[in-house]
Amino acid sequence: MFEEILIKNIKVPESHRIVSYLRNGGYTALPEALKHSGETIIQMVKDSGLRGRGGAGFPTGLKWSFIPKDPTLQKYLCCNADEGEPGTFKDREIIEKDPHLLLEGMTIASYAIGASKAYIYIRGEFEFGAGRLEGAIQEAYDKGFLGKKILGSGFDLDIYVHRGYGAYICGEETALLESIEGYRGQPRIKPPFPALKGLYKKPTVINNVETLSCVPAIISKGPGWFSKIGPEKSPGPKLFCISGHVNRPGVYELPMGTPLRDIIYDHAGGIRGGRKVKAVIPGGVSAPMLTVKDIDIAMDFDSLAAKGSMLGSGAVVVMDDTTCIVKIAYIVNKFFSHESCGKCTPCREGTTWLTKVLKRLEYGEGREGDLELLDSLCGNIFGRTFCPLGDGAVMALRGAMKNFRDEFEYHAKNKTCMV
Amino acid sequence: MAVMLKDTTLEKIRRAMKCYPDKRSACMSALRIAQLDDPENRLTEQAFRHIADLLDMTPVSLHEMAKFYTMYNLEPVGKYHIQVCANISCSLLGAEHIIRHIERILNIKVGETTQDNKFTLSTVECLGSCGTAPMMQINQEYYEDLTEDKVGSILDSLE
Ligand SMILES: Cc1cc2nc3c(=O)[nH]c(=O)nc-3n(C[C@H](O)[C@H](O)[C@H](O)COP(=O)(O)O)c2cc1C
Ligand code: SF4
Ligand code: FES
Question: Does the ipTM surpass 0.95?
Answer without folding.
Answer: yes
